[in-house]
Specification:
Radius of gyration: 14 Å
Distance between the termini: 26 Å
Number of domains: 1
Strand content: 35-45%
Order of helices and strands: HHEEEEEEEE
Largest sheet: 6 strands, antiparallel
Amino acid sequence: MLLLLVCLPAITSDRLDADHLGRLMGYTVVAATNVSGSFEGADYDKLVKLDNGMVFEFQEYSYTYSYHPDAVVLAKALDVPATGKQALIYKLIVDDEIYDVRRVR
């Protein structure tokens, strides 16, 4: 957890409190970058492109607006019992909001 707090110096809002951080247990920071261009929040199946080339699809709805905001990508490996393999699930933090996302690229 300390790694996460050290890697997110720009996130200072009281919205990212202990309850919100609890949603991130087991996740690892995999990238710190910015949203490319303007960000108008999340909408189901809407794509968001990051400056580092990653692209994600939102799995929820939330409206907000900002231009070129900071973004932190988090990932967590989960075991897939039927295959014996692991799958990565992602969360994206943009402007101190945590979003459920699916990686497209």
